[in-house]
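Something for you to look into today, if you have time. Could you write out one complete protein record for me, on any chain you like? Leave the record below and I will have a look.
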Amino acid sequence: MKSVKVFDEAFGEKLKRLRKARGMSLQRVSVESGVSPSYISRLERNEKQSPSFPILVELALALKVDVLTLAEG
């Protein structure tokens, strides 16, 4: 079965841009979301491209954006 890529390559860049626009460090987003800073860093570097939906929701809540805003390409 062919794998489906949920997010485009810009997901990590969008995550980093939103985090920086809010003046948040990786550690702060980690504390707010419950997601490890190393995982967030890997997402930002596009080493991980498809976080699970629950993680996506937690990141969106921490960044105070709608989950669709974070997920859409």
